[in-house]
Amino acid sequence: MPEPSLTEQLRADLTVARKDRDRLRTTTLTTFLSEIKNREIDQGRPVSDDDVRGLLTTAIKRRREAAEQMRAGARTELAEKEEQEAALLQAYLPPALGEDEVRGMIQDAIAGGASDVGGVMKAVMPRTKGRFEGKELNRLVREALAG
Length: 147
Prior knowledge:
The protein is mainly α.
């Protein structure tokens, strides 16, 4: 039996969350599934697992930024809720890459002929998408090219 798609997995988990009366999980998954539906409408086709991973990355980033703003505004209870939602969604992404793994990919790209930030980023980004922060990747690429 084939493994369920990421969207199917999210829907199944939403059903379980509803049965368990898990309010945070239910609202987070419902909101995220509506984002998937909107993307399908925009594209005019069902989303792939890669599309869903991209949406997850964006949703997690948005929630973390919101949590930072809430903390800056002394609204810790709201910040914690945003962080819990981000952690809940993070579970659907593949495990994050370590900095050493990413440095190795950067060195491979440079050895493969990429000589500027854009070239290295272009070579490494597809392999790190959703598994390593883009800002951090850019910093590591700049370090590697400078050193």
